[in-house]
Amino acid sequence: MIIVKATYGVKEDYIATNKQNINTFLQDFRRLGDDFKYTVYSNGGTFVHLSHFKNEAIQAIVLATPSFKAFQQARDASGLIIPHQIEVLSLEGSTAEIFVH
Q1: 82-89 and 46-53 strand pairing
Q2: Which of 16, 59, 76, 89 allows an S-S link to 3, with CB 3.0 to 4.6 Å?
Q3: Could you tell me if residue 55 is inside a domain?
């Protein structure tokens, strides 16, 4: 399993657009199946994306989704106030199975 946390901050006047763009790629992600979990959290203009990928193959498919790539490009062009940061995490435990083996 691959777990990635992405954090960034957008300008106040870009928050609504960012949320719309997130909704667009999440709709596309829902069509890709159950081999990954993707959640987005926000606190004002700070956004945290948390993704759990079953394997590298599904990660590659998700990251190549056109609406996701368009979201990333628009987000970066908006003038981030908190730079985009990526962390790869290790799962230590959960109250539920993330992927059924």
Answers
A1: unpaired
A2: 89
A3: yes
